[in-house]
Write a structure and sequence with these properties.
- By secondary structure, this protein is mostly helical.
- Strands 1-2 form a two-stranded antiparallel ribbon.
- A hairpin with a 5-residue loop joins strand 1 and strand 2.
- The longest helix has 29 residues.
- The N and C termini lie far apart (about 90 Å).
């Protein structure tokens, strides 16, 4: 029994282009040709093609397949299988997070720009636009630990003093700014006690502390009005006194 290139591709469920590519890179042997010049494939070619298809579907690269023993009973190297298993586990986790995001979007409970870690949280839909954008920026610079710490914070209902900062007008006077910064100190101290990770959000940031600090600083200056930014700077200075050596 002999098949043409098209017939074998259809039997294996692959494209003609794939068959030709496998020939070009030496992954599939060239068959004999009929007297009219057309290729004629046999069962051994089909079995080899099906093996290539299965291994690529599992996640092996063509270069990995090329390095494997051609004996179907030998199977892939156990080290390659373990590495592939680790990669597949990470892919499954990513897809589970993606599915959670899609579910939240379908229920209308999340903005499409939020990081995966926050899409299933009801409170994120209640955040003011600047805060929601700030969370989005955090998702690009923080590591898993920092994201978890900030997510824990968002589970908590904000106190009136925090809401006061959200509503602070750009032309707030000096007395109002200083008073608000001072009243925020015990509130933030309490948050740090309940959520220790907030004290060092950049502890596992992929691109390091300096890059994280610059990005967060830029986001704050762009997203919040001058009075709010000034209060945050005053608050940071007051809290720095807590960390100063006695």
């Amino acid at each position: 029994m002999a098949w043409s290139t098209r017939e074998m591709a259809e039997l294996a469920g692959v494209s003609l282009r794939a068959v030709r590519h496998y020939h070009d890179i030496g992954l599939l042997d060239e068959p004999e040709r009929r007297s009219n010049g057309y290729k004629q494939y046999g069962v051994s070619h089909l079995v080899r093609l099906l093996r290539i298809k299965r291994l690529t579907a599992l996640g092996f690269s063509l270069s990995q397949i090329a390095g494997m023993d051609d004996d179907p009973d030998s199977g892939p190297d156990p080290r390659d299988l373990r590495a592939l298993d680790t990669e597949l586990a990470a892919t499954i986790e990513r897809l589970q997070h993606a599915r959670a995001e899609v579910g939240a979007l379908l229920r209308g409970r999340a903005a499409s720009d939020l990081p995966l870690r926050f899409v299933s949280m009801d409170r994120t839909t209640e955040l003011p636009a600047p805060d929601r954008s700030f969370v989005t920026v955090l998702g690009t610079v923080l590591g898993p630990g920092g994201m978890d710490a900030y997510a824990d914070l968002l589970h908590q209902e904000p106190q009136p003093v925090a809401l006061e900062l959200n509503g602070l007008p750009a032309d707030a006077d000096e007395v109002t700014r200083q008073s608000l910064a001072e009243r925020l100190v015990p509130y933030v101290r309490g948050l740090r006690v309940r959520h220790p990770g907030l004290s060092d959000l950049a502890s596992d940031a992929p691109r390091g502390r300096q890059h994280t600090a610059r990005t967060i600083g830029k986001a704050i200056s762009d997203l919040y009005n001058p009075a709010q930014v000034d209060v945050m700077k005053r608050l940071d200075g007051l809290l720095s006194d807590d960390d100063a050596p006695r």
